[in-house]
Amino acid sequence: MSGAGAPDFFYREAQRLGYVARSAFKLLQMQKQYRLIKPGSSVLDLGCAPGAWLQVACQSLGPLKSGGVAVGIDLKKVKVPPLCDARVQTVCADVMKLPKDKVRALSPQQKGFSVILSDMCPLVSGITTRDAALSIELGMRALDLAVGGAALPNLGDELDGSICDSDNSGVLQAGGHLVIKLLESEDVQEFSRMCKPLFRKASLLRPKATRSSSREIYLICQGLQSNARV
User: Fold this and answer.
1) Cα separation of 217 and 209, whole Å?
2) How far apart are CA 192 and CA 210, in angstroms?
3) Residue 205 — left, alpha, or beta (φ > 0 → left; ψ -120 to 50 → alpha)?
4) Beta strands per DSSP E along the chain
5) Is 181 noted as a catalytic residue in this protein?
6) 8: which DSSP letter?
7) Which of 69, 166, 199, 219 is least surrounded by CB atoms within 10 angstroms?
8) Which pTM was predicted?
9) Which residues lie closer than 8 Å to 208 by C-beta, 6 or more apart?
């Protein structure tokens, strides 16, 4: 069980249904509201440990004959969890340092992914401003990975050499969807405004399965504009 507090409804349901974490219900809610992952989708899950989102992603891909893939990347070594089939694989790597060409090589025919999910979160220190800044940094990396640094002129110095690699092309396909977890702060609205011109729609969601003590919120970006993909 992750997080503080006594086992709650979502924790018990996760155990009953075979999900490795209660966070599965966050993605299940997004799926119900936005239908981000369709049969045959190619899904990239950033910060995939312990694998609950990979389980939901695999289920959302439909039957094996529908095709599709789900690739999880995490600093920790993550085993492919139960409820997943051969379309799921995991990679142990640091997303902040992983070149885009190596990420793209993990996608079908190396043509990029149709859905990118970032559940990355910094090690929370308890210092609100510091944690929020680190969260935005992780969000920036996910956005850069998706659309490419050249599509993000508004970032200025925020995408420095430690975040943005020399490959300026994104790995999210035109029309694709991007989900980014952030910690609530005054910067979240600015981050959202920056994303809106790049996508058909961008909205914020606090899933019902989020613990009451948590400050996390998800930015749901739908339909990458073809002119935004570099």
Assistant:
1) 11
2) 20
3) beta
4) 42-46, 69-74, 88-92, 113-118, 172-183, 199-205, 216-224
5) yes
6) -
7) 166
8) 0.91
9) 25, 29
d(CA 25, CA 52): 9
Which pLDDT band, with edges at 50, 70 and 90, does 176 fall under? Answer: very high
Residue labelled with tokens 């400050």? 215
Binned at pLDDT 50, 70 and 90, residue 126 comes out as confident
pLDDT attached to residue 3: 44
| Cis amide prior to 50 (ω within 30 degrees) | yes
Residue 227 confidence class, pLDDT cut points 50, 70, 90: confident
Residue 27 DSSP code = H
Q: Which amino acid is at 152?
A: L
Is residue 205 within 8 Å of 222, Cβ to Cβ? no
Q: Which of 79, 181, 196, 208 is catalytic?
A: 181
Cβ(19)–Cβ(55) below 8 Å:
yes
Other CB atoms within a 10 A radius of the CB of residue 197 amount to 12
Burial of 203 (0-12, 13-18, 19+ CB in 10 A): middle
Output helix, strand, coil percentages for the chain, rounded to the nearest 5. 35, 20, 40
| CATH number of the domain located at residue range(s) 9-228 in this protein | 3.40.50.150
Phi–psi pair at 164, nearest 5 degrees: -95, 120
Residue 42: CB atoms within 10 A of its CB come to: 25
Question: Which residue, among 94, 89, 100, 173, has the nearest Cα to 138 in the 3D structure?
Answer: 94
Query: Cα–Cα distance between 54 and 71 in angstroms, integer?
Result: 8
Q: Compute the chain's Rg from CA coordinates.
A: 16
